[in-house]
């Protein structure tokens, strides 16, 4: 078997670049006109301009918290209104993940960080920075979005080991009235996951909350794609979906079996919903929110960086609050973004069905009624490797795709490895480039299949299990 580099032919790259790796919104879908109007109104009114330009309250701009609580209540439809005390404004989902780890974990006492895998790969560095490099554990997905039995079995073993080692109290973090130290952390993207595009079922969400309560775990969910949803049909009659398809895990924790603040519970709950305006308004705003119990939200507001400088994104938070108060952002999401991303999804999926499925490529959860987000996950026919496809695509077709190994949990790939997978993003490139990108990808995979079948004398089949010989 030759080196991977042997599989790549030299190329002068005459074709235009098509980037299906970049998880950014297309610039045509940025609501610059809304931010322009909102910022002008905020900055020309001393009553909003001065608070926006000064240090903010620890929990964030009160107007945004109130407006956001109302919108989330309308979209997620919990049994009761969402009090603004359940929300703290953050610098976005990534920044808040770091804050949650600072307030609610101890790198010694906290046994493990359990990451549903494949996972958002840029989160790994955040866990690493908080001292969990050697404590990251992969939890594989099943058809319902998480292998709950795998998690229960392994988290029990982790807890037993900690007890046998005498690891029974926080080592590095002092006791604080606004925080607590959880024994475990579970990280997930339960709806339209990055990267697998799967949606966790209601049953699995409820089971996950019960596991978290049993083992004193904090579930941190990136709920950043929830508003970007549409019917899965390639010819939907109605593109508008104004409410969620499933309750968030934080909502389940709020109500299940007496709720997060039931008698005997400590009031912090076991779930934190990480929200962000990055996918629906623009990542440059660096503005998001955390929703949880009142004690959870308050704990995040007390992290040292916020106590020092006030809530992050104070000025842009006032702009976003203006767009929510007048209804501009809500209309933009439902009238512009949902239809636009639906069209992009339809185009790329039609091309995948036409060009890639006949080559043996598989997609997860193909029977869903509602889809969304930014990404599509592809499983290649064995023995074709995603890394080779990605390298060959860039070298010969000037096409960039993400190989599956990028999304493996570092140091724990025994039960969750993705060398035969790819992630594609349909948010960044123009619509016509999405179709051309799939055609180029099909050309690469077809050539690799021909080479591999020629060398082995066998016809390849879609991956159904382990043990097949790997050629690349």
UniProtKB/TrEMBL annotation:
Keywords: Transferase
Name under which the protein is recorded: PLP-dependent transferase
InterPro entries: Aminotransferase_I/II_large, PyrdxlP-dep_Trfase, PyrdxlP-dep_Trfase_major, PyrdxlP-dep_Trfase_small
PANTHER family to which the protein is assigned, alphabetical: AMINOTRANSFERASE, LD15494P
Recorded superkingdom: Eukaryota
Residues in Aminotransferase class I/classII large domain copies: 53-441
Pfam families (alphabetical): Aminotran_1_2
GO molecular function: 2-aminoadipate transaminase activity; pyridoxal phosphate binding
Keyword Transferase among record annotations: yes
Originating organism: Lojkania enalia
